[in-house]
Amino acid sequence: MSLKLNNRFLILIMGVLLTCLGFMPHAHSESNDALAPKSQVRDALAMPLHTVTIATVSLEQSLLFYRDGMGMSVEGPLTIGPALEKSQRTLWDMPGDLSWQTYRLYRKGIDSAIQIRLLVLSKPMPSIHDSWNSRELGPFSLGFPNNNTIALDKHIRTLGFEALNALESYPIPRPDGSTYPIDETIFNAPDFNHGVAITRGDGMAQLGPTDKHGKGGPAYSAQVITDSDSQLKFYTDVLGLEIRSDRVFKSAGDKGAMNLPNGTEFRFAIVYSKGATTGHMLFVDFHNVEPIKPKNAPSLPNIGLGMWSFPVRSLQTVLENANAYGAEIVSAPIKVVDPLVGSANVATLRAPNGFLIEVFEEQK
């Protein structure tokens, strides 16, 4: 086949996230956003999150959710020649007896949206997650800003996908003390991933540009982690990213978006590329409840969201930082010509939780 290539968080949490995060310059203004970037793009080492790689054995369900549901465009299966396949096998630590087809999912006309590299595996592999439980460690979600979550909620459910909770509507404070409404649903996406649909009302810019159908994203990705000091140090010291918000909150418990035990407290950190207003990461670290540890590593070739890819200004600097930090380098740089990242030198390393990170420096 060929195709053209929580329960909600606390209102307080979403207030921090949604009043302080914008994904394009039009979503930011110094007067309306206390956490608009104060750093400069020119000082960034790693750029905003560029590509998220998801491994699956269910092409039909993946296309049903991301294409038919979230409105992304699809190209594939892409032509991956023997040389590129060999390089990717090394970069991603893929076993020799496993093959795959590659699809590119993207938001047509919106270059700043995160791409999805969908790897359709030749055989089942272990799953990164065992369920959609919010306490499971590892990669959690992709976020999809849109103009009408009420309509999108009905549409996604009509396609057969459930959610962590009913659609939630709630007020969010602005820095000036006024409020605006939010509509949000966290859907149970294929492969035990989550897709977050979210709309800001009252004339507020959406959390990323939307297409002619009012759909946008992916604009961010999240993980549930432990030992967040070490985890966040990896992203700041190795990749040169910055923490824009870092707070501890008490969740809304079984009435909140993540449906957590009542009284749950967690650290909630928001990480950006310097100067960026898009492609950021959210990290949740539970303080007074035990997280659930899945049986399998949060990495390719396991099924699910197994890799983040970042363009970088200097691959050499990233690798020097990784060695200084003590990070595992999976593959030294390999020159590739790849349909998703172009002509680039690419290397891979692991975050402290074993999550695979791909970094690439464009070759002109």
TrEMBL record:
Domain of life: Bacteria
InterPro entries to which the protein is assigned, alphabetical: Glyas_Bleomycin-R_OHBP_Dase, Glyas_Fos-R_dOase_dom, VOC_core
SUPFAM superfamilies linked: Glyoxalase/Bleomycin resistance protein/Dihydroxybiphenyl dioxygenase (SSF54593)
Residue ranges constituting the VOC domain according to the UniProt record: 217-362
Residue spans crossing the bilayer: none
Name the UniProt record assigns to this protein: VOC domain-containing protein
Organism expressing this protein natively: Paraglaciecola polaris LMG 21857
